[in-house]
Amino acid sequence: xxxxxxxxxxxxxxxxxxxxxxxxxxxxxxxxxxxxxxxxxxxxxxxxxxxxxxxxxxxxxxxxxxxxxxxxxxxxxxxxxxxxxxxx
Length: 88
Hints:
alpha+beta
């Protein structure tokens, strides 16, 4: 399973519940999450998608800690099954 396959599946699942999964790129801030997700309930989530066996980089861990310190929702999803659990 490739990361891009999980990411495509994730985007479809978010759209299926009426949300938006924006691709997040911030050139001057390495380590930011892959997607910012806005759901119909008004919640916003920072999501990193990885293939099974992948690794979260030190910069990604630093971004995750920053988001959690700010009270933001941050998750790393490793498979389509984890996407299914997260979306429910």
